[in-house]
Amino acid sequence: MTTGRRPNGLCGAAILISAKIHGFRRTPAQIVKAVHVCEETIRKRLGEFKSTNTAQLTRAELKEIENTESDPLMFKIEETCFEPPAITKRQIIKSLKMEAENADEGEQEQLFEELHDMMTLQTSKIEKKL
Fold first, then answer.
1. Tens digit of each residue's pLDDT (9 = 90 or more) over 15-48
2. In sequence order, which ranges of 22-104 are alpha helices (DSSP H)?
3. Whole-angstrom distance, CA of residue 52 vs CA of residue 61
């Protein structure tokens, strides 16, 4: 989640999440003033955070980790690396191309359908934003 990201946006999202967990009412506008990024950047970082395993933890589970770890900042929950969307897409396309080169004709057709479906999904997400 940190690859290609400026610390300001990550810190802004972290402050907003922490404030909510600990019962402090903070708006994105207040955080923007502190970290000097736009609200959209914070929304994007929050959206990326939602796709992590850590985002699925409850307050009680977070507290348990905090209490059991000798250094709570060093706990490892994430087993996968969350790259920026452009890098992830590039890796998926590269992987599908490599599979297609080694596949028979029927498998190639299925792989191209998967790629088409992925591109259609991304296009619809972009259209919703517009």
1. 998 898 888 999 889 999 999 999 999 988 888 8
2. 28-35, 39-50, 59-68, 85-101
3. 15
